[in-house]
């Protein structure tokens, strides 16, 4: 850094992006916390009613998480230039060169500043988004197939019902008005979804640790106010960022 340069503020994260980020953090923390208790329910001696209650709470938090995620996906089409797909997704002309240059600059100390996501961050954010979308889709299927919650719960009840006119009688963990064969078919159908939900959860834990670690290391090295930028919307740089207008 040239000591004669002064730090200048650059606006980056718009209000929607910041709200999305913190709602996302809070709901994911809630989903991980309750998800872990569901995962170890047997070891923790949780009763059947307790499990249904935990899953209901997990699904309600999941709805907030899904709506927030859908809103962010829409925002990637209409938000400011740093919120858009072009600023998020890796690839495109010059991406690999930009990635090489960014890594070389990071190592040598001749840092290339980015107002939005740097090329490494694009890879990380895309991985996180893929995992979150996977969790959202598989979670909604599980909500329907496990405790008959929307948006698929009613369809699942119709599928497993002995008498399709009395689906109201079908309750989680109860065999009332449930056809054994069709229930077994439904459980076989849901099996890959729970497997993907679980492995994607493990990957997400690793990705979150990497994401937080990368932010701390980058902030220590670049000093551009990465963390406070998710509150204020602004980063500070000694030189004009590579992706600034
Ligand atoms: C970041 C997002 C999420 C994480 C980290 C997460 C994590 C977990 C974990 C660790 C489990 C326990 C898995 C097991 O028992 O094998 C679980 C189960 C479950 N999740 Fe999620 N989840 C997420 C999103 C969602 C969403 C959006 C929904 C639905 C709206 C959902 C619905 C469910 C249901 C119904 C179960 C119980 C499945 C069963 O035990 O059969 N999850 N989740």
From TrEMBL:
Family according to the record: Belongs to the HupC/HyaC/HydC family.
The protein's name in its UniProt record: Cytochrome B561
This protein's record includes keyword rRNA-binding: no
Coiled-coil residue spans: none
Transmembrane segments: 20-40, 52-74, 123-149, 196-217
InterPro entries hit by this protein: Cyt_b561_bac/Ni-Hgenase, Di-haem_cyt_TM, Hydrogenase_cytochrome, Ni-dep_Hydgase_cyt-B
Keyword Calcium among record annotations: no
Location of the protein in the cell: Cell membrane
Membrane-topology descriptor: Multi-pass membrane protein
GO biological process: one example: respiratory electron transport chain
Cellular component terms per the entry's GO annotation: plasma membrane
Domain Cytochrome b561 bacterial/Ni-hydrogenase: 12-233
GO molecular function: electron transfer activity; heme binding; iron ion binding
Keywords: Cell membrane, Electron transport, Heme, Iron, Membrane, Metal-binding, Transmembrane, Transmembrane helix, Transport
